[in-house]
Every structure is written in structure tokens, then in C-alpha cells.
Amino acid sequence: MTVFVVRRLALLVLALFLASLLAFALLRLLPGDAAAARGGITADPAQLRAIRHELGLDRSLAEQYRSWLGGVLHGDLGRSQLNGTSVTAELGEKLRVTGPLVLAALALALAGAVPLGVLAALRHRTRLGTGISTVGQLGIALPTLWVGLLLVTVFAVEARLLPAQGFPVEGWSAPGEAARSLVLPVVTLALSEGAVLLRFVRSAALDVLGRDFLRTARASGRTRAGALWRHGLRNAAGPVLSVLGVQVAALLVGAVVVEKVFALPGVGSMLVADVGNRDMVKVQGEVLVVVAVVLAVGFLVDVAQRLIDPRLRETAS
To answer: For residue range 221-258, what is the model confidence (pLDDT) as tens digits?
Structure first.
């Protein structure tokens, strides 16, 4: 197990390095640069050359990458090419919105998907099971943007129970207002994520229900639900964990849409604005952090799967 963890950590570091190199290279293929955005439409060629020199854009790409990567290794993601602010500090502020949004949505999605998925498997080919599966398929099909607008119309515009958009200026210093502003975004994100997870939980539970060891447990006197709870859930957890690792990336992509719909000052809104402004240093820092989160979740999922399933530990060894 120790050898597996060390090997997996080495692959994570290598993947992060390749992601940083790829993000840096691909962003340079976009038309325009920060100098043009900073100088505006009235800037003449001499002014643009001066701005590029100030920002270091006249250096070779290899020098720019080495300089940025050196800062990253010391925890410094660089400074904005437009206003000189620290990318690390600004990203930390934005994560105070995006972090709770994604974590709360994931928790809510799991809280709904796991029991409903298991129930749909236990009531397979009944009206209840078919109804739960149909609702799950409908949740997958509905666009996140449409769901968000519908929730705003019902709960913010019509019922006036929750704020439609925005986040308090005081941030989490006003915890009540901050939490209320995230309710609709969290529900919007959790509905689409929960529908996907429900489908996989149901499939994993159905697969376990057909295994011989569960038939043996039922033959010993346990009910179908009792046998699944006592012997089957641990076996069903492995495939669900694999899907969960992939869905974290989908959650982060969905957070970009949700933050725009609800005007939240999170990482998604920051990323969209910085791409439009061609602030490459900020964009590559944001992309690297998002990739690091996804890779870290994948690493934790791999470790958790081997802790749950002894057969995987034997294969790894």
C-alpha cells in the first residue's frame, strides 16, 4: 500500500507539471495579450512595446514559463498583468465562495443520490423504482442554466424567500446572509450532480444484488435490504467512488455556469473575466489550481478504493 501511495503521488506531481506546461502553452495561442487589454484601443505601438517590456512579455516563452513555475514552487502564482494584484491572494478570496458552493453541493447530492439510488435498486421493476429512475434521468437531461433560472423565478422572484443573485460584501463575516445567498446555487448544482450519482448508485447496487455472496446472505435469513446493507454496500462503494472522482471535475465546470447565473464572485466568474481580459498569469494560475484539486480528489479516491476493497490492495502489492 505504501508503494502504491508513493507511486501515485509521483504520478500526481508529474501530471501537475504537464498540466502547467500545457496550460501555459495553450493560453499563448489565444489572440491578443494583456498589453493590448491594458493599453486599450488608443495605445500606439510604442506604448504597447513599453507595456510588454514592463510585463516581461518580450522575453522568450521558455524564460516566462521558468519564471512563473519557479514562483509556483514557492507558493506564488504570480501577479495580475492588468492591476498587479497577487493571484494567490485573490484566488484565496474567490475560493471562499467557490469552495463552500462545491462542497455543499456535493454533500447535498450524495445525501439524496445514495439512499434514492439504493431504494431504486431494491424496488427494481416496481412503480417506485421506475419513478425514481425517471426523475434521475430527467435531472440529467435538464440544463443547469435552466434549472437555476427556474429556481430564481420560483423562490426569489415569486416567493421572495431567498436572494436571486449576489454575495454579501462582508463575505462570511455575515454568515447568515452568505449562507442564504448560496442556497439556490447549491441546490441548482446539487440537482444535476445528484441525478448523475443516483444513476450510478442504482447500477452499482443492482450489480451487487445479483452476486452469489448476497444470495447466500439472504439464504441465511436476512432480508434483501438487510443483506445489501450488511454485505453489499461496501462492494458497491468502489464503482461509485470512481464516478465521484470524475464528477468533481463536472462540479467545478458546473460551478462556472452557476456563478454566472447567480452573480457570485467565485473562481468561475474570475476565470471567465480573466480569459476575456487576456490576463494570462491569472488564468494559468486558476487553471493550475483547478487541475490540482481534480487530481488530488482522484488520488484520494484511489486510496479510498484500496482501503475499502482488499482485492485492490493485493493487486497493487
So the answer is: 777 777 777 767 777 777 788 888 788 888 888 888 89
Terminal CA-CA length for the chain: 7
Residue 315 binned pLDDT confidence (cut-offs 50, 70, 90): low
Closest CA to 267 of 114, 147, 88, 137: 88
CATH number belonging to domain 95-281:
1.10.3720.10
Rama region for 223: left / alpha / beta (φ>0; ψ in -120 to 50; rest): beta
Q: Which amino acid is at 33?
A: D
Integer angstrom CA distances of residue 41 from 37, 38, 50, 134: 8, 9, 15, 53
DSSP line for 141-206: HS-HHHHHHHHIIIIIIIS--S-SS---TTGGGSHHHHHHHHHHHHHHHHHHHHHHHHHHHHHHHH
For the CA atoms of the chain, what is the radius of gyration? Answer: 24
Nine-digit cell at 274? Answer: 480573466
Which percentage of the chain shows pLDDT scores above 70? 97
271's CB contacts (< 8 A; 6+ apart) are 256, 283, 286, 287
For the chain, where are the alpha helices, taking DSSP H only?
2-27, 34-39, 45-55, 61-73, 87-122, 127-141, 144-151, 175-209, 212-219, 224-227, 233-261, 267-277, 280-308, 310-316
* Identity of residue 73: L
Structure pTM? Answer: 0.86
Cell of 249: 471535475
Q: Where do the structural domains in the chain lie, given as residue ranges?
A: 95-281
